Amino acid sequence: MTTCTDYLRAQGYGHVYGHISDADVKAFRSIVKRMPQHFRMVELGSLHGASAVTFALLAREMGKTCEILCIDIVLTDAYALEIFKENTKDFDNIHYRAESFHSRFVYDDGTIDLYFDDASHEERPTYRQLMFWSNYATNIVVHDYHEAWSGNINAVDAFSAELGLHVEHFDGSSVVYMENIRGEG
Length: 185
Hints:
- By secondary structure, the protein is an alpha/beta fold.
- It has one domain: Rossmann fold (3-Layer(aba) Sandwich), CATH 3.40.50.
- Helices cover 36% and strands 17% of the residues.
- The chain has 6 helices and 7 strands, in the order H-H-E-H-E-H-E-E-H-E-H-E-E.
- It has a 7-stranded mixed sheet with strand order 3-2-1-4-5-7-6, sandwiched between helices.
- Helix 2 packs across helix 3 and helix 5 (123-133) packs parallel to helix 6.
- The relative contact order is 0.16.
């Protein structure tokens, strides 16, 4: 079910619907506070752009700047792409790539400050995505870490155990955060 958060409504973006909650926005705010003055992020699983718009607005609110690359197979659909473009049209710092989550990722743009995974929600693909992007990202966030998406739970738990990363949870939110030393070089 898609909804619009109170935050997006209050910022004049009541037309931007997604699968995030007000508790998720609170978690995002905590995460954006930790980012450098200018940060680069990749979001895998962008759908209509609600998360990207929220991150961009929170950065702006905090006097920060950011570049956000959104990757989603749904953006290969012309109608979905038009919704995404409409929702993100006010942000020249939000870019996109229409690409399958299961494809062989190609990324050579260097280190990113934040990787946000909200894609397949299946254990094996999510684990592979986390391992791939951990080579680039100094901070990792996963959405939908809850019992309805056990694949995300299993992938995050295996990934964090393998790399020895602490998983931070946020009250009322299915967002989890991991600081990743591996991606710092």
